[in-house]
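Support request from a user on the community tier.

User writes: "When I paste my structure tokens into the form, the page sometimes reloads and wipes my input. The last time it worked, I copied everything first. Here is what I submitted, just in case something in the input itself triggers the reload:"
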């Protein structure tokens, strides 16, 4: 127990170190001597209005998406499923487009709820399709999700092009934190609160991850837990998409890396999954800001490259194990 807590404290320290590095990187020069002198000045305003909100947004988005990915993998009973490989994120983007077309003046919270409704519908459609596949393998499930996501993304692109909103919707899909400022990221706290709710129900998600028969035998209402899980995943995804755009593969990489060391117990692995997701997105954002400094590569692009490589590695690893 002491060794486990020590490793967790070390992981927290690592994420805190990455967060500090994130605070010090940016196009604007941060003069630390102004902070330590007590005068504050531009350095204090830069931290308060831009750097701290951005770093908090990175941590909140990364940890929430990682937990959403783990919950989704438990529901689908497949290690290669997450919001970006099940049509959930693309459905949320379609919801954002619907709001831009039909009710552009509604509040950000209402926009998130609409996007969450679309994400929930898209995820439910994904699970419905899976139920109609009689002998689905571990590799067929994410393939179905990717195809469904591609169809939904094509619909979004068509209507965005039709109504001259292609550039606007492309911004929502980029996964970019450069525009995060104080007052424009707080929606992510809702997603983080939902992730904490997922932690409270971790034992139930572990049970449904074993199977419907097992969950029913231990007295768990399987359909209710699945519905709660889908609602959590959909609203987390919507909060991230509405705030910063689509960020793929975070919910795939973090749970799989943790599962290699800790197994499938959601209660024990959820804190590690959250920390891994936060560390991953912080690292990718730092890399995106450093590679072409003072210009930035959107974090969604960097995570997409890294996540695609890890996704392929996981597929090949499973094939070797099966072979």
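"...and here is what came back when it finally went through:"
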């Amino acid at each position: 127990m002491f060794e486990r807590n020590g490793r967790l404290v070390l992981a927290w320290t690592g994420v805190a170190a990455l967060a500090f590095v994130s605070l010090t990187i940016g196009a604007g020069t941060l003069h630390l001597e102004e902070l330590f002198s007590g005068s504050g000045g531009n350095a204090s305003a830069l931290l308060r209005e831009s750097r701290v909100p951005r770093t908090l947004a990175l941590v909140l988005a990364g940890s929430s998406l990682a937990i959403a990915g783990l919950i989704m993998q438990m529901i689908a009973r497949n290690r290669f499923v997450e919001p970006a490989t099940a049509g959930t994120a693309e459905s949320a983007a379609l919801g954002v487009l619907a709001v831009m077309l039909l009710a552009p003046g509604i509040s950000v919270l209402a926009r998130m709820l609409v996007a969450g409704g679309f994400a929930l519908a898209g995820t439910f459609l994904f699970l419905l399709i899976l139920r109609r596949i009689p002998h689905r393998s571990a590799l067929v499930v994410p393939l179905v999700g990717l195809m469904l996501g591609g169809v939904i993304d094509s619909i979004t692109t068509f209507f965005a092009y039709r109504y001259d909103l292609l550039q606007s919707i492309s911004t929502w899909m980029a996964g970019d934190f450069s525009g995060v400022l104080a007052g424009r990221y707080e929606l992510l706290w809702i997603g983080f609160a939902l992730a904490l709710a997922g932690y409270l129900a971790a034992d139930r998600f572990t049970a449904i991850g074993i199977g419907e028969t097992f969950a029913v035998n231990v007295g768990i209402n399987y359909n209710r837990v699945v519905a709660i899980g889908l609602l959590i995943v959909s609203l987390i995804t919507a909060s991230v998409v509405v705030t910063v755009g689509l960020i793929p593969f975070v919910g795939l990489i973090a749970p799989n890396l943790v599962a290699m060391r800790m197994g499938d117990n959601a209660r024990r692995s959820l804190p590690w999954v959250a920390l891994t997701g936060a560390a991953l997105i912080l690292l990718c954002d730092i890399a995106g800001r450093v590679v072409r400094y003072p210009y930035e590569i959107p974090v969604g692009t960097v995570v997409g490259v890294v996540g695609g490589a890890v996704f392929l590695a996981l597929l090949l690893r499973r094939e070797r194990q099966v072979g």
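Agent notes: The reload is a front-end session timeout and is unrelated to the input. The chain has one domain: 2-322. The chain is about 75% helix and 0% strand. Escalated to web team.
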